[in-house]
Specification:
The structure holds 2 protein chains of 2 kinds. By secondary structure, chain A is of the alpha+beta class. Chain A has 2 domains: 60 residues; 133 residues, Sandwich (Immunoglobulin-like), CATH 2.60.40. Chain A has 3 helices and 10 strands, in the order H-H-E-E-E-E-E-E-E-E-E-E-H. The longest helix of chain A is centred in the first third of the chain and has 34 residues. Chain A is elongated and about 100 Å long. The mean pLDDT of chain A is 92. Chain B is mainly alpha-helical. Chain B has one domain: Cytochrome C Oxidase, Chain A (Up-down Bundle), CATH 1.20.210. Chain B has 16 helices and no strands. Classes of the chains: A alpha+beta, B mainly alpha. Chains A and B meet through helix 1, helix 2 and strand 9 of A and helix 3, helix 7, helix 8, helix 9 and helix 10 of B.
């Protein structure tokens, strides 16, 4: 999957490091196994040499494996550290988010994602963020565990009731990115999807403004209906 | 009543011979209990396959409506519980329970009635799990994460039944494990020091300790879950002092420990089979034994490797990565020594060896892909995609199906006196291998490239995963056919297989010293154990004496010059 954020670039790199390391191990083991099986096949024959142990190869193999694991651990720490780095808002980003990242709350609930923006506006299913802007997504849950998963933009993270989990990301390109939930959360789990619309800062300002006005208008209308004694 | 032929031994005549089923049902003999566990495990394997196939039919095409969402979640929950608690663990413990006491030269077990209670609890657990078809099976998935498993979200009795069933089965395994530990500590044959115990029996000892630890943790968690659900508990509720993450910690300790336990079992069995079929001793026994113990400890400590997307501190994530990557060393050393055991041998490519080689190959692929799930940031990409389904299935089908079937083919002659049909075994092996590769390799791609999520009852067209899922479904059908072949092979060979004799493979450990099947008391006489290969010592001694007496005879027959 194409990465559209510096954080996911790091995640991708580490994944490929792991992939290559795993491939090396698998190829070596399977290669040795196949070679040995082909080479030493024989139904009858003299009894083979009864070799019990060899201390030298143990230390060599153990040493190589230890170095291999240690190297992977260091690479893991380095790239995980890079991926966790808090991003900064760039030139094309939202002006008000230059010093502090734009804080948005994402709340998982069976089976929908709700997003709350700083000015009080909110939206369901679709998250709208300005391009090239540092975003701090605060993950919350009102019911069960959900996993927020928009692979092209940010890391996977769980929304656990009673806990806050934070995801930081920026985006390099406008567009619509598909996402979903990655932890079984009940019947409609597979349908619990989301979308992130990355737009220009102006379009973002306009979106939260209109969204706010629409919500206010809807609320006023509901309050009006109730005051008139009607059921909304 | 006619007078007994042995009046000096029998005071009141022989007891009436009871029918075989009555004998089995009331027996506390470790061999009977082991056989019931193995047969039961194979039966539940069939049911687990039915559930897996139903799920794969649902996932054959995008947005399929073959199963309802709830129906899919029920199949998923039943499949997970069946595969782990009713197939893999009982097969593992059945074989341990049957073979390990024989291997250490014991005439029984230390606490036979405890084992019998364990078996009864396990059977009851299986019955409880499948009786949920009468009302509602659990919908909470393979590992029912709180708070989804709480009564507020799943108010029917499915989760209660799931917790009861897995709890009873786990308690059963813990009791069997306690008996095995007691047996190992008190009933080893004269001279059977720990350094001479066969690797499979050593694996049984390590696994039993591991089950006592992680099984107790799961039992505690299940008790909390039942209190939460039925007595207004707050263990896993957020706020008021409870914590949903507590369930994740406790349950992953159990599941990770079980994962390691299945691999320890598989490596133990493979070590015995490699040595017997290469006609060589296990290369570096001590290193292999130490590595098995290291896997039990490090592997279980790596439980948080499953929680890398949860809100836990980054330090804990690095800790999980550290112990997961540290596992490369013991796993690597075991693989190296197993392959080195084959090297230089004369390999007889019979079914047990074939399955054992298949187990090594698939476990390696599974563990290799698990490596990518251990690097923290990489796990943020891979966690909960079908890539993790594939990794887990490669390791655990490798361990429990390939490893379990290797052990089954290897010790089947000891249990029944007959070998399993060789041709069918070979066909079954290749079918399972093809099925496993076709069934789960596509999921690696669907998970890493397209991020298809785990446990979902449907996927959408246009997400690029349709082709992968079609191939995976076909692969699982083939896998099921292959597994069925071995189950049928076992059933038919029990009565119709070729007669095997007492030591068909030329094994070196004590279980081959007794009859096939063994008498209830296992051994009439026991040799003095002087090395890890007592039977080889006996054969050499006999060979030596035969040669000496032949030499003497030829000397005598020589004409006096």
């Amino acid at each position: 999957m194409a990465s559209h954020s510096p954080g996911t670039d790091q995640i991708d790199t580490l994944f490929w490091i792991g992939f290559i390391a795993a491939t090396i191990l698998i190829v070596v083991v399977l290669g040795a196994l196949l070679y040995v099986v082909r080479r030493y096949r024989g139904e009858r024959g003299a009894e083979p040499r009864q070799l019990l142990s060899g201390r030298g190869p143990q230390f060599r193999v153990g040493g190589v494996l230890t170095v291999f694991a240690a190297l992977l651990f260091i690479l893991g720490i380095v790239f995980t550290g890079n991926a966790r780095e808090k991003p900064t808002t760039g030139e094309a980003g939202l002006a008000s988010a230059k010093s502090e990242p734009l804080k948005i709350k994402a709340t998982g609930q069976q089976w929908l994602w709700r997003y709350d923006y700083p000015n009080g506006a909110f939206s369901y299913y679709k998250l709208v963020v300005p391009v090239d802007t540092a975003i701090e997504l605060e993950l919350l849950s009102t019911d069960v565990v959900h996993t927020w998963n928009v692979e092209e933009l940010a890391r996977k993270a769980d929304a656990v009731p009673g806990k806050t989990n934070k995801v930081f990301f920026t985006t390099d390109e406008e567009g619509a990115y598909q996402g979903d939930s990655a932890t079984l959360s009940g019947q409609s789990y597979a349908a619990m999807r989301t979308e992130v619309d990355v737009v220009t800062p102006e379009e973002y300002e306009e979106f939260v403004e209109t969204q706010n006005e629409d919500i206010d208008a809807a609320e006023e209308r509901v309050v009006g209906l109730i005051e008139n004694g009607e059921t909304p | 009543m006619s007078p007994s032929p042995h009046p000096e031994l029998v005071a009141e005549g022989y007891g009436a011979k009871r029918p075989r089923w009555a004998q089995l049902a009331t027996s506390a003999d470790h061999k009977d209990i082991g056989q019931i566990l193995i047969c039961g495990a194979l039966g539940f394997l069939f049911l687990a396959l039915v559930e897996l196939v139903l799920m794969r039919i649902q996932l054959l095409v995008p947005e399929n409506t073959f199963l309802s969402p709830v129906g899919f979640n029920r199949m998923l929950s039943l499949y997970g519980a069946s595969a782990i608690f009713l197939f893999a663990l009982p097969l593992v413990f059945g074989l341990f329970y049957y073979v390990a006491p024989l291997q250490i030269g014991s005439r029984g077990t230390a606490l036979p009635r405890l084992g019998q209670v364990g078996l009864t609890l396990w059977v009851t657990g299986g019955v409880v799990l499948y009786s949920t078809f009468l009302f509602t099976p659990s919908e909470a998935g393979v590992n029912p994460l709180a708070p989804l498993s709480e009564v507020a979200f799943l108010s029917n009795n499915g989760v209660d039944a799931w917790a009861t069933a897995t709890g009873l089965a786990t308690l059963g395994f813990v009791l069997l494990a306690v008996n095995l530990v007691a047996t190992f500590r008190t009933m080893r044959a004269p001279g059977m020091a720990w350094r001479r115990v066969p690797v499979f029996a050593w694996g049984a000892a390590v696994s039993s300790w591991l089950m006592i630890v992680v099984g107790s943790v799961l039992l505690a968690a299940l008790t909390m879950l039942m209190i939460d659900r039925n007595y207004d508990g707050i263990f896993f509720a957020d706020g008021s002092g409870g914590a949903p993450l507590l369930w994740q910690h406790l349950s992953w300790i159990f599941y990770t420990g079980t994962y390691m336990l299945i691999l320890i079992f598989a490596f133990g069995a493979i070590a015995e089979i490699f040595a017997a079929f290469a006609r060589k001793p296990l290369f570096n026994r001590n290193v292999v034994m130490a590595s098995l113990a290291a896997i039990a400890v490090l592997g279980t400590l790596a439980w948080m490797q499953n929680m890398l997307t949860a809100p836990i501190g980054i330090g804990w994530m690095y800790f999980a990565m550290l112990v997961s990557l540290a596992l490369i060393v013991p796993f690597g050393l075991i693989l190296f020594n197993l392959i080195a055991t084959l090297a230089g041998g004369t390999l007889r490519m019979r079914a047990p060896l074939l399955f054992a080689i298949g187990a090594i190959a698939t476990i390696t692929i599974g563990l290799g892909s698990e490596l990518c799930h251990s690097l923290v940031a990489s796990a943020w990409h891979l966690k909960n995609t079908v890539d993790s389904t594939a990794a887990t299935h490669f390791a655990l089908v490798g361990g429990s199906v390939f490893g379990g079937f290797a052990a089954l083919h290897y010790w089947f002659p000891k249990m029944t006196g007959r070998t399993m049909g060789e041709n069918l075994a070979q066909i079954s092996f290749w079918t399972i291998l093809v099925g496993l590769v076709l069934g789960f390799v596509p999921l690696f791609f669907a998970g890493t490239e397209q991020g298809q999520v785990i446990d979902a009852y449907k996927y959408f067209a246009g997400t690029g995963v349709t082709a992968y899922n079609v191939v995976a479904s076909i692969g699982v059908f083939i896998l099921s056919i292959g597994i069925l072949m071995t189950i049928l092979n076992a059933i038919f060979s029990r009565t119709n297989g070729p007669e095997a004799g007492h030591d068909p493979w030329g094994g070196d450990s004590l279980e081959w010293f007794t009859l096939s099947p063994p008498e209830p008391h296992n051994f009439d006489v026991l040799p003095d154990v002087r090395s890890p290969r007592p039977l080889r010592d006996i054969r050499e001694a006999i060979g030596h004496r035969t040669r000496r007496s032949e030499r003497a005879a030829s000397r005598e027959s020589q004409p006096v010059a």
